[in-house]
Amino acid sequence: MGIRSKLIAFAVGIAVLVAVVFDGYVVKTLGAELGQHTEADLAVRAALVTESVARARDLASEATALAATLSERAGARVTLIDPAGVVRGDSSVAPERLGELEPHAARDEVADARHHGVGRSERVSRTTQMRMLYAAQRLDRPDGPWIVRLAFEPVAIDRSLSAAHARVVQGTWLALALAVSAALVGARALSGRLVYLTGVAREMRGDLSRRARVQGRDEIAALGGALDDLAESLERSRRELGGEGERFGAVLESMREGVLVTDERGDISLVNPALSQLLGIRGDAVGRPPIEVLRSASLHELLEEVALARAAATREIEIAPAAPGAAGPPGRRILVVNAAPLALPAQSRGAAGVVAVFFDVTELRRIEGLQRNFIANASHELRTPVASIRASSETLLGGALDDPDAARDFTEVIERNAARLHRLVNDLLDLSRIEGRERPLSQGSLDLAAQAEAAVALLRGRAREKGTEVEVDVAPGTLVTADPRALDQILTNLVDNAIQHTPDGSRVVVRARGANGRVLLEIEDDGHGIPAAHQARVFERFYRVDQGRARASGGTGLGLSIAKHLVEAMRGDISVTTGAAGGALFRVTLPGATAGAPR
């Protein structure tokens, strides 16, 4: 129901209510006043009739005629009752029927008149069966107290009340017509302004620059002004929130750390791109519990602890990526999570929302593990030659110097282990410089055939000692983009590794071929090969497939690691597999070069 209909209904209701109240008040008041006036008039008439009756000499015989005569004069029914209560005259009853009337001594007005001199009552007459007003007065006579009673039918009162009621009804209809007309005019003016304000308010939902600008000093104008003030405040708040939201979004977008926010129920309400990328979280994570998305009991416990205790906490946890293909060794991430409760009113109860910041320390922990392994391996590698040098030195100092043959043997042991220490230290320094990018590489176009022949020429003496045949099958003019010293070190390490780890009389082949702008260099032997379980780890520092045999050969355990880092520094790849003859096959891919490129 619109406001116009409500105003009309309200006006009609008020008019009807006023009419009903006024009608009841008028009828009741008027009826009471007319009744009082009629009773007073009837009492006066009764007194006058009583005076006339008092002049009768033989009232018992004249009562019938006297009642009829006085009734015409008084304009009312006249009844004369003797001291015994018997009706001796009644203007409304034929004389021959008076004997049929019952005694009236028990009538209320008759009884009151006998005791108090006057009496009044109103009731339906048993004789005429009509509502009557009675006024009785006592007349003392020698034969006893007679009662003179007048009765009046209040038809005039009823007619007056009916007329008054009819006028009230007419006035009510007139008031209703005026009220409806006035309500229509007022409702049209009021609803028009309210409809305008409603339209403006709806427009403000999409355009907060819209204003009502209602003129006047009434409540509608005040409402319009309040609406304008509200729109201005909302527009200002939206600008401020928009700026803050953009800044907040930019911060979240640019953060390298992952951010996760939960609400009071513990469900995810925000995930920044860094965390989504880090753990492979899909876009439907919002509104779901963190344990359902990340499947980490440790993270779930941390978030619950912070939410309930409302105190910040930090924990290092391991989480598997939520999506296939997410990075991390081996398929898991080590994260340091700083969690803190969101600010809530002090009077609020229950759990709070939580904001958690994730720091990926997977690489850091990996490096720390490598450092620990490196220190342990380097210490282990250094311990053997140092122990040999120390033992030989102590033996010489203990008297072996006096024995020329023994002194020579121990001196040779010291020299071999010192050379091994020298190689180990040099390899460690080279590896450190390569990993720290402290060794500059000057890449240019190199003839791979010439580089391979030069590297193999340095190792042919050792190969002849073991009866190993080294063959170079690289076409002249095979050009690669590489640093000459780095390429020489790669070839030397790989060929030397093949010679050392193959039985006497083996064969080592160095070959190369170009394809798609890159050159594939292969070093293959026909030795025992490298088991598949070890192939992925042979490029790690100090990793050896056969610990005893590797140390006996004099290797430092760093050659393949140095070769790997140098290849990668020159934008190449290196891998190992099992060759056709069952031996080890190392493949090195390097960028190719064209003739005429700078050397």
From TrEMBL:
One of its GO terms (cellular component) is membrane. Keywords: ATP-binding, Kinase, Membrane, Nucleotide-binding, Phosphoprotein, Transferase, Transmembrane, Transmembrane helix, Two-component regulatory system. GO terms for molecular function: ATP binding; phosphorelay response regulator activity; phosphorelay sensor kinase activity; protein kinase activator activity. InterPro entries: BphY/WalK/GraS-like, HAMP_dom, HATPase_C_sf, HATPase_dom, His_kinase_dom, HisK_dim/P_dom, HisK_dim/P_sf, PAS. It catalyses: ATP + protein L-histidine = ADP + protein N-phospho-L-histidine. This is histidine kinase. Residues 377-594 form the Histidine kinase domain.
